[in-house]
């Protein structure tokens, strides 16, 4: 089967590419390398360095004719989306429309879309949030991801494109970029390993649902060949505070650095946690990597760099 992975040079996308290749699929990667890295690229994949907003994408999809597209390319930094909402919307909404238009015109059967359970529900009312929780995103990034879901619903209903949406929790693991604003595990792990002080925003009691990248890849594998057009949360159902996360990482890195708190980030969500009963029931997926084990693997990766 031919699969196109947009964002295949990035953190999650590159792990997914490796897994598809391991399964014997032909893989095409589309990535503009804005945050993705050449060193993440699997040598067995065909690579096109291209922005998903570009008209060149039409020629690429016309030539490659992927049966399935896994859409992971996105501007994924919540802070950046607040600073420049138009940039976020161009990449995450106009880019998605360009991609899906090309897909529909060239016979792509199915799209799997990487959405965000952390961003689209907004400040949660019930815990953990199931897929039918109200959606009131509190950032332009959350809005653009939710818009992507709405566009895919339209393409599915009107154009017959099969679509599955995966709403990820906070994904962490090897290859995550420690230099951005997103990815607190990577940021803390790298700093602690270098003996540099990390700062926790606010009182550190904000919670997130941390899910290991290998589990996220398996969630993608579980829905890639389903016939269903559906939306699934991908998380663990467990809330972890930033303080707890920091404590784990202090222990794993054997660091004696202190817990230092900075000012609260304006607009940051307080609690986030996803109910994953639906994907378990429909696709038999459940997370397998415990937080401590995933953090240990991640620290081991950063130690090797
Ligand atoms: N990491 C998380 O916790 C998380 C949570 C929810 C959803 N997601 C979604 O998962 C996907 C992958 O995220 P990630 O954490 O691997 O981030 P990432 O930044 O490592 O990956 C995104 C990739 O897309 C590429 N890209 C960005 N804009 C592009 C464009 N306009 N054209 C072509 N390529 C472009 C980047 O170069 C990068 O390789 C994103 O869609 C993100 O919104 C991530």
Question: What do these coordinates show?
Answer:
It is a single chain. The protein is an alpha/beta fold and about 300 residues long. The protein has two domains: about 200 residues, NAD(P)-binding Rossmann-like Domain (Rossmann fold), CATH 3.40.50; about 90 residues, UDP-galactose 4-epimerase, domain 1. It is built from eleven helices and 13 strands. Strands 3-2-1-4-5-6-11 form a seven-stranded parallel sheet, with helices on both faces. Strand 1, helix 1 and strand 2 form a beta-alpha-beta unit. Helix 1 packs across helix 8 and helix 7 packs across helix 11. The chain is globular and about 55 Å long. The protein binds nicotinamide-adenine-dinucleotide (NAD). Nicotinamide-adenine-dinucleotide (NAD) binds next to helix 1, helix 4, strand 5 and strand 7.
Furnish the topology, listing elements before pairings.
Blueprint: E1 2-6, H1 11-22, E2 26-31, E3 46-49, H2 56-64, E4 68-71, H3 78-83, H4 85-105, E5 110-116, H5 117-120, H6 140-159, E6 162-168, E7 170-172, H7 184-194, E8 199-201, E9 207-208, E10 210-212, H8 213-224, E11 230-234, E12 240-241, H9 242-252, E13 260-262, H10 277-283, H11 291-304
Helix pairs in contact: 1-8, 2-4, 4-6, 7-9, 7-11
Bound molecules: nicotinamide-adenine-dinucleotide.
What's this entry about, in short?
The chain is an alpha/beta fold and 305 residues long. The protein has two domains: 2-171 and 210-234, NAD(P)-binding Rossmann-like Domain (Rossmann fold), CATH 3.40.50.720; 173-208 and 238-272 and 289-304, UDP-galactose 4-epimerase, domain 1, CATH 3.90.25.10.
């Amino acid at each position: 089967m031919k699969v196109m992975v947009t964002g295949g040079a990035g953190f999650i996308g590159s792990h997914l590419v490796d897994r598809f290749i391991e399964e014997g699929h032909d893989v095409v990667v589309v990535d503009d390398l804005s945050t993705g890295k050449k060193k993440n690229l699997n040598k067995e994949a065909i690579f096109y360095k291209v922005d998903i907003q570009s008209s060149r994408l039409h020629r690429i999809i016309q030539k490659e004719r992927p049966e399935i597209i896994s859409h992971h390319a996105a501007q994924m930094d919540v802070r950046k989306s607040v600073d420049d909402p138009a940039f976020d919307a161009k990449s995450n909404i106009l880019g998605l429309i360009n991609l899906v238009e090309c897909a529909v015109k060239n016979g792509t059967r199915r799209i799997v879309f990487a959405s965000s359970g952390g961003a689209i529900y907004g400040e949660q009312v019930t815990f953990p949030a199931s897929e039918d929780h109200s959606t009131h995103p509190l950032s332009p990034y959350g809005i653009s991801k939710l818009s992507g879901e709405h566009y895919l619903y339209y393409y599915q209903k009107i154009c017959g494109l099969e679509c599955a949406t995966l709403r990820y929790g906070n994904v962490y693991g090897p290859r995550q970029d420690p230099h951005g604003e997103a990815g607190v595990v990577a940021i803390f792990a790298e700093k602690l390993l270098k003996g540099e002080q990390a700062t926790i925003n606010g009182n550190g009691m904000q919670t997130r649902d941390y899910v290991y990248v290998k589990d996220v890849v398996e969630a993608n594998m579980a829905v890639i060949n389903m016939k269903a057009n559906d939306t699934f949360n991908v998380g663990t159902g467990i809330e972890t505070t930033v303080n707890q996360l920091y404590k784990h990482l202090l222990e794993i890195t054997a660091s004696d650095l202190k817990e230092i708190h900075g000012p609260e980030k304006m607009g940051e969500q307080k609690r986030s946690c996803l109910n994953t009963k639906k994907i378990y029931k429909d696709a038999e997926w459940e997370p397998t990597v415990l937080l401590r084990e995933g953090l240990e693997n991640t620290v081991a990766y950063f130690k090797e760099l």
